[in-house]
Amino acid sequence: MILTGKQKRYLRSLGVNEKAVVTVGKEGLSTNLIDSLNNALNARELVKVNVLKSYEDDLDTLAFDIAMHTKSSVVQQMGRTILLYKKARNPKIILP
Questions:
Q1: Burial code of 2-13, b = ≥16 C-beta within 10 A, e = fewer?
Q2: Alpha carbon distance, N-terminus to C-terminus of the chain
């Protein structure tokens, strides 16, 4: 799903109060991490991911890979924090 600038701004404003649900360590992407991200996205639609300093690869590539594997959209990547959005079957978040 491609998000417009207005939708991204709205989702970023909602994501400010969210706490990181999933943490990526030095191992990077794994099947367990992707499963837990999918579960979190199905339950919440908007998920914040924290990347530890022990992860040494490129963060842009990680954000892209996570979005690709979970079929979600990267709303924001700021430092070592990634905000993801995936529309649910019964959406809780109504986008502008």
A1: ebeeebbebbee
A2: 14
pTM over 0.70: yes
Q: Structural domain boundaries of the chain?
A: 5-85
Distance separating alpha carbons of residues 76 and 12, to the nearest angstrom: 7
pLDDT mean by block of 10 residues, the chain; 96 residues: 94 95 94 96 96 96 97 97 96 93
Question: Domain spanning 5-85: which CATH class is it, in words?
Answer: alpha beta
- Dihedral (Cα; 8, 12, 20, 92), 10-degree rounding: -70
